Amino acid sequence: MKKKTVFKCSNCDYISPGFFGKCPQCNQWNTISEIEVSESPGAVKAVKKNSAKKLLNIEDKGSFRVKTSIEEFNRVMGGGIVRDSISILTAKPGAGKSTLLLQVANDLSKSGFKVLYASGEESEVQIKQRAIRITDEISENIYVYSDTVLDNVLEEIEKIDPDFIILDSIQTFTLRELTSRAGTPTQVMECAHKMVEIAKDVKRPRMVFLVGQMTKQDELAGVRALEHLVDTVLLIENDGNEELRSLLTTKNRYGSTGEMGFFLMTQKGLRSLDNPSEYFMTYREAGSELPGSALSVIREGTRPIILEIEALSSQSFLPYPSRIGECMRREHLNTLISILEQRANLRLMDKDIVVKTTGGIKLKEQASNLAVMMSIFSARNNIAIDTSTVFIGDVGLTGELKSVPSMELRLKEARRMGFKRAFIPEVSTKFEDFKEMKVYRCKTILDVIKYF
Q: Which pTM value belongs to this model?
């Protein structure tokens, strides 16, 4: 097994690949000693053993967060970037990973933070060209470095001493001590461990972002251990939409999991969509409503969003009518159609039904079921529903309306957006009355339909 020479502090056991006169960990002078260690990737470094502490006696210093001017990014991160955290961002090629992180880097650099953008995929000139396109002014605090050897990047980190580090992408970097090629599980995990040490350094904590490549199965490339290693896992989705991008978190040690932020891809990069309710609904003047449209209030993470659901009903000339749900599973759509036929006496067996949402957002929760059914009813009977009405609730197989979580929060969002009527389940939790909005508590889907 090959050996290599490193330098170790005799006072605190700090190990460095290079010579040092003053130990960076304990700040003692002339404590260096030269030792040989194994080059095996599985070799464990000798570190000073800590003593167990009582949980009650551990000092809670709190997590210092750094906020950017990009509100949607702050929301997904849980309120900002934790100072000693490491995160990974993945998406399909062209979704905007590098663009978003370069915008975040430029924003932080304007606040006085020193940034290092290390890329193993793009040259420094390419990064500069993107920066010119998406930023009005490039800050002097941004440093770029193009290389695929992580050892060289670590040397630049020690030289520049940045507060915020971006590694784009982790699958392109290698360590000299390993013989495997870039992208292999060993290289990726060892490189990630190095960056964790950089981020979690007690004496010099840093914010680290890794860019992760995505597989054909739309998953983060590499072993699952990589996701366990980092603090936050972020994903950019676009679902074929040329403009809309959604940023969501599947893991966050410092915030809510499932939080989602919305962006619009423009010539100047990703623009934060701070009020998505305005984007996911169509404004129509009173009296100009069209059949087949109903509004609901869904929740993405902790945020309520007004969403327009559109339906189309047309005569079918085939033995089996079409059921197309661009925003939901077909089995789910068929279930709601069956409830309408059986419990609301609505004949749909000879109708082709198409359901979609404005903006292409997916319906992931049951709170939108009532609005989906009302949009189908509206399209089938050619009855327009006024745009000042929202429908919130689940519908059971019996036709009864079922309560959904965060009802009061959803109603407050509807009131904020100026809605006048809301139809909700009768069994919903009691809450204060809304003077500006009439709330109708209904027991069944048939009770709701009677108002139209």
A: 0.77
